[in-house]
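To the wet lab folks,

You asked to see what we're planning to order before we commit. Fair enough. Below is the target structure as tokens, and below that is the sequence we designed to fit it. If anything looks off to you, flag it before the synthesis order goes out.
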């Protein structure tokens, strides 16, 4: 693998960090990245507004990624982003925008870009084929997805192929409109029954959410699923197992899609030839909604599943199936122990239902120490039910055992409900934490304080890093082709506070990634969130990716930081107005003393240089005002201030005390340097006057006094003394003028 900066750095552009399917794909990408030691930056294509609405900002992400100098490749979740835009326009835009970046498309085929896709067509083919062959369904309605959507069209083709393979004529009337929502599922049933009045014995939906809507509408009409009509879905949504009846569906291998997309991109980066389309297989998941938990299904299952015939005992069968369900999370010895305990209880003579429930409950408690995904146990119980039916000769009380297995699902449901309650409590706890964090952040008065507060607060939300990059100029949503140059970095990383770093030269956007490399040497996966405050784009926020952190936590942190930054910006403006002289841009009297006080505290700790107070008075300003007008007088004041700013150093404190009086607080190596500085300032007045740029001549009386002690009292005394020195010079100048006039 080659890289521009050592370790490969890949971007993944996703639509929504809260989507279960996209999270699973990201996990696949992340696991593969960990295997190959690759850094990942995840760009989230939508942000949550203060009105709890989601707004897309893909153009912002496109622009940032396109202009990146540290990026080696891109994985774009096209199938999830494309529905937001016109399909043709989107495809043209993507291929043109990223033509110079090695790119892989996920869940959507784009011209000239390798794509990793779910095998939607074969997935639907197999599940519709199951309805026909196993259940004898003939009149199968199909609720499609959005027209033109790549995956939706493939699923429709799978439905057509299954009909054709079983010699059932395709009837366009049975294809009902849909858009992947519960409402479209309900509307499709209404249209099928009330308007079209077509005979039907099954409904195949393009996705699970649509299937849920269809089943709910059928229930309202007292149509029994699966007794009267079978219903199937696609996606294996997390609700599919807990839904009543549990939904027969197609499970996409999202983790496999993520893994394959990363491996494909690595090959593209290395210059290898890759296939234009790579299909990742789907698995049909048989549950209640198609009518499969009955004797007919059990007998058919024997004929269609070799794993059943390969097991010669109920215990061997149960162990074989349990290994398939739990091997990723548990050791083989643990799984064998569960299978042995359950089967021994089921085969006990006499069978004791109470004992069975007790040991199963203990297993669930033990299981929860490692995993909270109790949904697998619904499938495990289905498997045991099927196994008991197959090996019924080994069971003493078949009817009682089957009844107990059905009732055992109540224990799993209770465990799921408890887990939901725990999640709700954790969510309430997170919301309380977020509320407290938000209240704290909005009260910060500068960026350094914000870094410190983030370092204290975010670890409570399992976030150990937060890097913020602010643009040199904030961008309004009406601006096009705006420059997204980061001027300031700050934040924290694993307990280390990153104080604001101001960059004179605007770096590449991905300098956040470069900065992270300096802070952390290891591989990392980070989420990049553009920071918005209403219609202003402020910069970016980088947080570590963790699929277990709820979306609303990420969004709440982003909004809180955006609000805090905007508040700091407004406070800074107010402070600048209160301590700045409007005409010259110099500090006013209040501002001078505020900054001088801070400088004195610093010098006490860090300097052995000589501190000087310089007092200035513009000569003849009253005459300029009286003879040339106040507008010329203002020009004289502004020109005077410009000379001071150009001649003195950037860290010297310069203020306008009012009228024609100015003051500067500077440090020099010796008093002689103060004399040289005074001469340089006076020479600048001569240079300006020689140019004859203005109607007036500019000159100044100057008083310089060394600061004997680094205290405010001494500073004020020095200013009075410098004023006296200045006044004496002014008096001598007037006497010379009077002498000349005589």
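Sequence we intend to order:
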């Amino acid at each position: 693998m080659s890289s521009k900066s050592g370790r490969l750095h890949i971007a993944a552009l996703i639509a929504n960090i809260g989507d279960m399917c996209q999270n699973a794909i990201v996990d696949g990408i992340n696991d593969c990245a960990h295997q190959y030691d690759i850094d990942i930056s995840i760009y989230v294509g939508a942000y949550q507004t203060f009105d709890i609405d989601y707004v897309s900002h893909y153009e912002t992400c496109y622009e940032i990624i396109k202009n990146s100098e540290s990026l080696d490749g891109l994985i774009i979740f096209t199938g999830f982003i494309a529905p937001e835009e016109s399909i043709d326009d989107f495809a043209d835009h993507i291929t043109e925008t990223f033509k110079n970046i090695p790119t892989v498309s996920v869940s959507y085929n784009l011209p000239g870009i390798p794509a990793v896709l779910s095998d939607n067509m074969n997935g639907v083919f197999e599940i519709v084929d199951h309805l026909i062959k196993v259940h004898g369904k003939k009149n199968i309605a199909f609720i499609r997805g959005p027209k033109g959507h790549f995956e939706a069209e493939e699923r429709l083709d799978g439905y057509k192929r299954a009909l054709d393979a079983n010699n059932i004529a395709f009837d366009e009337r049975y294809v009902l409109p849909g858009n992947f929502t519960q409402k479209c599922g309900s509307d499709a049933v209404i249209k099928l029954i009330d308007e079209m009045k077509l005979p039907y014995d099954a409904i195949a939906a393009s996705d699970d959410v649509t299937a849920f809507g269809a089943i709910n509408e059928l229930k309202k009409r007292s149509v029994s699923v699966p007794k009267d009509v079978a219903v199937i879905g696609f996606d294996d949504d997390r609700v599919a197992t807990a839904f009543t009846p549990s939904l027969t569906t197609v499970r996409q291998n999202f983790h496999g899609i993520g893994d394959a997309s990363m491996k494909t991109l690595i090959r593209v980066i290395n210059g290898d030839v890759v296939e234009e389309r790579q299909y990742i297989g789907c698995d049909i998941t048989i549950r209640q909604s198609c009518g499969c938990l009955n004797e007919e299904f059990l007998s058919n299952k024997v004929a269609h599943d070799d794993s059943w015939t390969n097991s010669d005992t109920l215990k061997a069968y149960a162990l074989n199936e349990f290994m398939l369900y739990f091997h990723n999370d548990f050791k083989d010895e643990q799984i064998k122990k569960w299978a042995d305990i359950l089967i021994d209880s089921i085969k006990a003579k006499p069978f004791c239902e109470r004992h069975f429930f007790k040991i199963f409950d203990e297993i669930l408690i033990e299981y929860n120490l490692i995993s909270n995904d109790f949904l697998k146990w619904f499938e495990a119980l289905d498997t045991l039910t099927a196994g008991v039916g197959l090996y019924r000769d080994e069971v003493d009380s078949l009817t009682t055992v089957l009844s107990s297995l059905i009732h055992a699902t109540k224990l799993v449901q209770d465990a799921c409900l408890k887990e939901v309650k725990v999640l709700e409590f954790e969510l309430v706890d997170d919301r309380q934490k977020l509320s407290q964090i938000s209240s704290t952040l909005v009260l910060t008065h500068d960026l350094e304080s914000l870094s410190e507060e983030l370092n204290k607060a975010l670890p409570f939300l399992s976030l150990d890093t937060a890097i913020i990059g602010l643009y040199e100029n904030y961008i309004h949503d009406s601006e096009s082709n705006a420059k997204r140059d980061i001027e300031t970095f700050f934040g924290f990383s694993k307990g280390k506070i990153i104080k604001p770093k101001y960059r004179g030269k605007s770096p590449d956007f991905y300098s956040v990634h470069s900065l992270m490399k300096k802070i952390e040497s290891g591989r990392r996966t980070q989420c990049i969130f553009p920071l918005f405050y209403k219609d202003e784009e402020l910069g970016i926020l980088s947080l570590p990716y963790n699929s277990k952190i709820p979306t609303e936590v990420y969004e709440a942190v982003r909004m809180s930081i955006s609000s805090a930054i905007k508040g700091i910006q407004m406070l800074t403006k107010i402070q600048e107005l209160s301590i700045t002289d409007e005409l010259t841009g110099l500090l006013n009297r209040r501002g001078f003393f505020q900054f001088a006080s801070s400088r004195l505290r610093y010098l006490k700790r860090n300097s052995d240089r000589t501190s000087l107070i310089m007092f200035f008075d513009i000569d003849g300003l009253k005459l300029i005002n009286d003879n040339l007008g106040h507008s010329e007088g203002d020009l004289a004041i502004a020109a005077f201030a410009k000379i001071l700013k150009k001649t003195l150093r950037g860290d010297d404190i310069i203020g306008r005390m009012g009228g024609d009086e100015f003051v500067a607080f500077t440090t020099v190596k010796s008093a002689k340097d103060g004399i040289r500085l005074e001469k340089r300032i006076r020479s600048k007045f001569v240079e300006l006057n020689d140019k004859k740029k203005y109607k007036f001549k500019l000159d100044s009386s100057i008083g310089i006094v060394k600061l004997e002690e680094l205290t405010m009292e001494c500073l004020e005394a020095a200013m009075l003394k410098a004023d006296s020195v200045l006044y004496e010079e002014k008096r001598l100048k007037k006497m010379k003028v009077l002498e000349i006039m005589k």
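Structural context that might help your review: The longest strand covers residues 465-476. The mean pLDDT is 84.

Thanks,
Computational group
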